[in-house]
Amino acid sequence: MSIFTEYRSKLRTPEEAVRVVKSGDWIDYTTSLGKPILLDQALAKRRDELFDVKIRGNLINGPIEVAECDPSQEHFIYNSWHCSTYERNLCDRGLCYFIPMVFHNNSAYYKHFLDVNVAMMSVTPMDKHGFFNFSTSTGVCAQILRKADIVILEINPNLPKLYGGYDECIHISDVDYIVEGEHEPFPELPIPVPTETDRLIAANLMPHLSNGITLQLGIGSLPNAVGQLIAQSDLKDLGMHTELCSDAYLELHNAGKLTNKYKTINRGKSVLGVAIGSRSLYEWIDENPSVAAYPLEYVNSPTVIEQIDNMVSINSCISIDLFGQVSSETSGMRHISGTGGQLDFLIGASASRGGKAFICMSSTFSDKNGKRHSRVLPHFNGEIITSPRSQVYYLATEYGVVNMEGRSTWERAELLISLAHPDFREDLICAAEQQHIWRRSNKRY
């Protein structure tokens, strides 16, 4: 049978394809642009005949119809490995549950522990060899589809095709059903605009950066600020090795800074696991031989990261306490995002020859009533610890950069208070004294 005959034999409508889902099943939507839009809509229409169907996904923009159609969660229960802004809103409404993890272990979770009854995701059209490309979702897909009892692919011609290191595609022979249909172009996501505080933090990082470094940047306004400053700087011959590729890298590429010339592995290649950003970003990575997508078991592996000389990781957090513990996924008890790859890159970049791992935040934030709060806290009260104090190295706010490696509790308290907003420093000193992590000889700020 030719691959095209096999393709036609497996072609179904979305409604026909989702008939395979049974009550009690575990379903996987993979991640981001891999969300199966047509299949999700068709599955939601079966709500009243299905019960206790569990769905996993992450970094998915809305709407997720199976979550929206069933506020009782009697029929569908949605779970996320890492929350997008939309999924955070679902959490606020009690319609999404977070799954704790570190991304370099994500494939192993599926391989060894998790059941997948039906995997459904969006892919590029089949090529002449019978392969479908995982596109911007390459980082998480292959092991999910290998583990699945049934694989359903939804064809979305708007997806960019990414060349990969391995596990970036699936062959028609490993697919059970295929769905076609109309897909709107992906929405033009707004590029986060850096604040003045973001620019100050980025400026504080610049003296720690040099020619030939390889960068991992998170997503948000701060990484964009870093990207803009680097693009305008004299730095050159930078590399990219990142869990998530955003428009910050496109800016570096457009400025001629991103050459990957001195990478000690994957030389000449901008390595990524997932990509989320503008249409211009997707156009840049589409069939670009200088870009390579890999599973996150590779991209985020600390043992891989540490092989890259001068690896620099820049991530953000929500708050830190005086002991040096970092929370990057909750604000109090409210879930915000996820662990992601922060811990992976903290460990890997810090072990790299010449490497550095930075965690950044503004010193304060304002609540909905306009009241200002410190992000440097005496101690946590219910916040989830993303990065333990034993793995936190460089920290940055608009007030400077400090290195926590090998520091005792009183040294950490002094360094962290130096990063806090001046309006909160006296209170933090009093708290440190009460927590027995402040020496009488410490200077007062």
Automatic annotation (TrEMBL):
Cited InterPro entries: AcetylCoA_hyd_C, AcetylCoA_hyd_C_sf, ActCoA_hydro, ActCoA_hydro_N, Butryl-CoA_acetate_CoA_Tfrase, NagB/RpiA_transferase-like
Catalytic residues (UniProt): E243 (5-glutamyl coenzyme a thioester intermediate)
Compartment annotation: Cytoplasm
GO cellular component, one term: cytoplasm
Any Gene Ontology biological process: acetyl-CoA metabolic process
Record's keyword annotation contains Zinc: no
Recorded coiled-coil stretches: none
Residues annotated as domain Acetyl-CoA hydrolase/transferase N-terminal: 5-186
Its job: Coenzyme A-transferase that converts butyrate to butyryl-CoA.
PANTHER family in UniProt: ACETYL-COA HYDROLASE, ACETYL-COA HYDROLASE-RELATED
Family assignment from sequence similarity: Belongs to the acetyl-CoA hydrolase/transferase family.
Enzyme class: transferase
Catalytic activity field: butanoate + acetyl-CoA = butanoyl-CoA + acetate
Alphabetic keyword roster: Cytoplasm, Fatty acid metabolism, Lipid metabolism, Transferase
Name of the protein: Probable butyrate:acetyl-CoA coenzyme A-transferase
Species for this entry: Butyricicoccus porcorum
Domain Acetyl-CoA hydrolase/transferase C-terminal: from-to ranges: 277-430
Transmembrane segments: none
